[in-house]
Amino acid sequence: MRGIFFKAASAAICIMSAGVALAQEKTERLDSAIVSLSRAGDKTPVAFTMVDRQALRSTNPIHSLPEALALQPSVVTYNEGGTGLGNSAITVRGSKGSQINVTLNGITLNDQESQEVFWVNIPSLTNLISTVQLQRGLGTTANGAGAFGASINMNTASIGPDPSARVEISRGMWNTFVRTVSASTGLTSKGLYANVAYSRGTTDGYIRNAFVKSRSAFVTLGWLGGRNSLRLTWLMGDQKSGITWDGIDYEKYKTDRRYNGSGEYYDDEGNLRYYDNQTDNYTQNHLQLNYSRQLGDRFTWTSTLNYTRGDGYDEYYKQDRKLVNFGFAVPVTGADGNEYFSSDAIYQKKMGNDYWVFNSDVRYVSDRLRLTAGVNLSSYYGDHWGKFLWVRVLPESYDFSVMNRSRAWYSNDAHKKEADFFARGEFAVVDNLTFYADFQFRTVGLRMYGRDDDYIEYGSKEMIDLDKGWNFFNPRIGMNWDFAPGYRAYVSVSMGNREPGRSDIKENIKGDGAPVRPEKMADTELGWSMRGNGFTLSANLYSMEYRDMLLETGRLSTAGYAVKENVPRAWRRGIELCGSWNGAGWLSVGGNLTLSDNRIDDYTSYVSVVDENWDYTGATQAFGWGRTRILLSPSTVGMLQAAVAPWKNSASNSLKTTTLTVSGKYVGRQYIDNTQREGMEIPSYFVMNASVSHEFKLGRAVLGLSAYVNNILNRDYFAYGWRWEACSEGASKDEIVSGIGVYPQAPVNVMFKAWYAF
After folding, report:
1. What is the pTM of this model?
2. Which of 56, 155, 230, 590 is the most exposed place for a label (fewest CB within 10 A)?
3. Is the pLDDT of residue 668 over 50?
């Protein structure tokens, strides 16, 4: 296990290299061509880190991919349920999930409407993928939703030379149970290969109703023959999880960290009850067909066809809701003959989507020149509608089928089309000086139509009706200078543009703000690194300057949802320092530190006005705050990690594999909103994790045992939050009444894993 943990430690530090050996690149040139499209190389002037398959497998098995990347530079993660399974999120340099482009085999995983990646829908990715490249900043050209702060590029399991199989069983606290099986044929004499994997995970979660039942399956069938590569990949993710995204009111958090009000209601006798099926349910299937061909010694052509189908729903029990907002003609005559304007109800908010993608590119590689040009075409159809299961005041025999079939409550559709064209090149003027240029043109069209789930007329419209298009040009230029053996410096300047998401547009249509505009960002990166005998050091200066950044300002739509508005000017500026040392052989140490300044130049918030009975009047009051910090953007983020193999030089081959790894992550104070007020903050926190692992050699097979202890200092902390606020008409800043909700993370907890591989 020594090799696994040393690679895990080195993957956690910032090594500015491509991370792919030349021999491996030659062996898998055709198979890996489909992911090299948007990946940076060792002379590309961007900041990035590589995480390999062994490092991913060495992480805690309960962790989703965001937690597996938690020790990377400038990264902050959290999990809604407090453990690892379930809804997780990642930010990089403060950039949230919708601003991070995520690709799998060159195909974007970002939802085309929200631009988010819902990691709970693709569980156990750490067991299915072979490498991850995390780029910070605008990075290289990527397909799909434009990277606006970071990109995560993933590749599924690569080809091994020999047949292999692996079984993992993991158990932990809160009834956590994860099991994974995988197998590979290796590359046969006919050039055929197959990889399969299946994983299933269950947990009760740390907070109430944070249970998860998830499974994933992965199959790859491929052929390598001469200059050709053909690969068919199927990836399935399926999950049923308790709804946890409401968080916990901070006052309640002080007395009960495990509280979750989702599904809470009171029965006729006034007893507190919980609806057991307050859940999020989603199934997603990805089917990809990849073809690559070498055209001579210098050209490679690669094409990928992808189809993704998603189906799911959220189920809710809601108490005392206005029936008119569900499309009922009020008053409603109940089973008892009385008239009702509100009632308890159980309903589902359903969605289905189809996503088609075709991309194709041609690469040219010579001694001094690397050129890549290509096209990415996609079409997305998304459907949203509501389904009733029960309304308390109606008779049990009430037939909802007609209403559900006609989607009388709400039904709205979206069709998003995109075409990307790009060209990227790296030219070595001399042996140690390389110039880089990357140009992308994106054209995006969005059609949205239908009634939203609040069933409220907005202005003169009862329906959302939008047909909008955007054209973006995203240029990147830079240079890399290898000014001495082991020393490297680079500089790059990039421009990025990003269209608003579905909710940004939808809630703005129903609000009273100005129409939302695309966001713009200029990113400048200046980096330096050095490699010595067993050590690396690097530094990266960055300046991400925003125009028209979309932020929640406090303004509400007619339905009471937050409306995002464009902020004229904001920035994220900082320095990232990274280092590692592995000179002792039995000891490996790595760390990184990010110091940043994240500001809005002139921020105005809008606070809802309430009357003396705390009823919303429909008005808002503006408050100017001047220059403030951007929400959820800590100024300091750092990590230290050490891996020790104390008996590496022992005569016993078994003892040589024993490895202890300890890591610590520090996240500085961050604010829940953009006003930088006292009380609207997440305090800084420091979390330590530890693991120990040992392997037994059984001929060609390996039996491994691992133990993971998370939060070994048993810190009570929360890593994310939201706020509410209100004021009376004419109030001052000091008279704003507010509160916050938080997402508590689990105290000290233990996970055990056993695996058998051959």
Report:
1. 0.90
2. 230
3. yes
